[in-house]
Amino acid sequence: MNTAILAPLMRRPEAGAILSLVAVVAFFVVFGGVNLGTMLGAASWVNFAANLGIVALPMGLLMISGELNISIGAMIPAGSMTVAILSGYHELPIVVGMAGALGLGVIVGLVNGFLKVRTTVPSLIVTLGTLVAMQGVVLSASVLLTGNASVALAAAPGWAKRSSAR
């Protein structure tokens, strides 16, 4: 390629990030094993990356705005336990469990936002308190509602299982 074309591109701040991404992907395709370059391998890491992206995108937006939410460390297990209690223990449909987890997240987010806006307490301290409180709430609710600290979901129905023999 002509250096006259590359020079303006390399002066852009995003060029370093894109080059780093290409280098990391190339490294793992070459050294990551036999399946990484295949469709099954790509599906595997995209599945994992989606879970991280669901958490990382809103956290990135918060960091850009100068805030920090560390209560996410307790909200992920709280949402999981909500689904497990509603759908696993009480045998409600999984959609009800997911709606309950979403509702819990909205309520905790509203409490965090209200405390941040109405008080002069920094978001780090507000969400640290929420983190500790939610850990206690999840453990207490689990023991009170189910009599156990862990709750299992039933096996997925046949239509929800994917065959690995494709």
TrEMBL record:
GO terms for molecular function: transmembrane transporter activity. Keywords: Cell inner membrane, Cell membrane, Membrane, Sugar transport, Transmembrane, Transmembrane helix, Transport. It is a multi-pass membrane protein. Coiled coil: none annotated. The chain crosses the membrane at residues 15-36, 42-63, 95-115, 124-145. It is found in: Cell membrane. InterPro entries: ABC_transp_permease. Pfam families: BPD_transp_2. The keyword Cell membrane applies. Part of the binding-protein-dependent transport system for D-xylose. Probably responsible for the translocation of the substrate across the membrane. This is Xylose transport system permease protein XylH. It comes from Thetidibacter halocola.
